[in-house]
Amino acid sequence: MGNLFQDLRYGARMLLKRPVFAVVALMTLALGIGANTAIFSVVNTILLRPLAFRDSGQLVAVFEKQASGARDYISYPNLQDYESRNHVFEDLSTFVPQSVNLTGTDQPDRVRGGFVSSSFFKMLGVAPAQGRVILPAEDVQGGERVVVLNHDFWQKRFGGDTKLIGRALTLNGDPYTIVGIMPESFRFPMDEVEVWMPAQYWPNYAIDRAEHNAFVLGRLKEGVLISEAQAEMAGIAAQLARAYPKENGGRGIEVVGLQSFLVEDMRPVLLILLGAVGFILLIACANIANLLLARGSARWKEIAVRAALGASRPRLIRQFLTETVLLSVAGGVLGLLLAQWGVDLLMAISPGPLPGGVSPRFDLRVLGFTLVVSVLTGLLFGVMPALQLSKPDLYSVLKEGRGTGEGTGRHRLRALFIISQVSLSVVLLVGAGLLINSFYRLLRTSPGFPPENLLTMEYRLPKNKYPKGAEQTEFHRRVVERVREVPGVQSAAVVGGLPFSGNGGTTIFTLPDRAQPEQGKEPKALVNRAGDRYFETIGIPLIKGRTFTEQDRADAPPVVIINQSMAQTYWPGEDPIGKQIHLPEAKTTASIIGVVGDAKQFELGEQQRPQIYSYFAQNPNIFATLVVRTQVEPMSLANSVRAALWSVDKDQPVWKIRTVESLLERNVASPRFMMSLMTAFAGLALLLTAIGLYGVISYSVSQRTQEIGIRMALGAQARDVLRMIVRQGMRLALIGVLIGMAASFIVTRVLSSLLYGVTATDPLTFIAAALVLGCVALLACLIPAHRATRVDPMVALRYE
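Above: the chain sequence. Below: its structure as tokens.
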């Protein structure tokens, strides 16, 4: 311990004696370690930290699998069979998130609701802060209407009133008795639910084995593995498929850990970012190692004297590693401070909140990660210089009283570090270039209609107030009629699933004049319902036929409109107008009356699919989105349009008032976030590489001052010296670029799922990355090379 403290004190003095080196090294390390800590803190929060529930590792999500392998929800009759037949689950519960109307207050509103089984809270292991949760007797048809409030909703709406239990809340037009309030710490990670109600009161609840619409959660019994649950549930699914071939034919089951399910979309992105900042740290390590080698040349006499006095090579190596670890730990402390700022910046520019509304925090795991990374970094960038510097040429150094101790091996080592830096930088540059190229192509993609000047808002009619389809259709008609009268409104219509809102679905269909496919292999298409003048309002062009009109009444023959992709897929070279489509789920056969242009429904970068539009009057629904094309700035008409709707029904809540442009902006937020981070990391890597290359060439010039002076004294021109120095640096850069390009062909394939309109091996992106790095490397070489051309031969000949 005495030797260790002595080494630490000596290392600290050596750093203080060279403050410029210490500051440069500390900042380089702080950037590398800080970036890694910031990203790891997010990874820790999302991927590693257990969910905030009792034995959260036992919580799972249960899905049925379609014949195609796609996940699907579970019908309530199937769920009842799974519950009664399994021996692996402690509890199974449904969870269906859906907003509900809140009325009876100063102003009608829409709040986020969750319809759950009575076992839901018990399964999660969460008790209410006040009152109770939903009882089994309330989880059956005809049971009492009760509601459990979330803590934040209770505070925001009722000011934390402690006498709220037992009072009524009007939701979807029905009175619900408030029976409980959840604790402040309770956050369900899937949706920020404000009110919890029995599953049976979900508007689309149906005891129908063909209606697969319940998301199911479960808690495994103690000691039961997910693989065991999967095996047993697969057996039950096979039994149900044999017993009910029409509803369950070809369907399987999948049991997946709840936390794995929640983060499966984010995991690849986080691991890519973690790998990117790992590259940054490696580049920083190479930079510091080169600095140490350059700095070590000034310590040859000190090292030789210590060796001559009996210091063994292991003792010298330990001293050097103590200094580097001390430096890296100090850089880690500074990096931890930068990481806190970096996490705040990440959360500020992130496309949305983390699952469950959690925020990254620096717990013991993050602090331990930073400590381990700091120590390993010190060893990583210190071990090679330590091995090289610990074997000086004692004879030449002690005899001359100066000497550099430099050899071919040390030149090669510095060259190796530069090549490594350049190679890693190329990989990051190519990755950033691919994401930039992809994002540029995404922004240039047309959604299929002009998104400007489009105001939208959603509403859901209470079924007890508007139980019949004719009443729902009449309400939508009157709303559109009133909105069209608002000054500044150019056109208005209603639609079921507004593009980019997340609403919409798919349906199977068959063509009566074609051979019928096997059950479970029917073709699918996107499905939507639209009101009259919807296509004119949103701007989707009519290609052939006509659009819906008020003559397409509920008692008129069923009609549909298809998009261009569907027409080209199923009627290539034919006129689809008048063709018949059978929709089994809607139990109807309709005639095609029009073909409209393709429009993206969910993602701007999605592949265009066949789409079928039915008419609202023939396929009524309580849910609708109002679409308004304005002649002025859309949000300036929000209050007027909402007032027009309230003139039809003053108690009808309206929510999600926004523009289509804002929906598009939200849609590209994740690609923009990823592109921005990778570009920042690539820029940082480029900067560190340029600094490293500049440092090596500058050091080489200072070491070769005498040689350069002799060359110039013998007639060498400035351009000859410039060419010699630049050639030295660019040779290293070229080797690094070639290695980096080869590595990029392999590494960048992990980005494939994040790219749009460009492949992971896009040649133009690779060439652009190589040119950018080549230009930066050339600039880093030219500055010291230009300084070398100004060497005075007479001064150089007297050098040393």
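The first strand starts at residue 59 and ends at 65.
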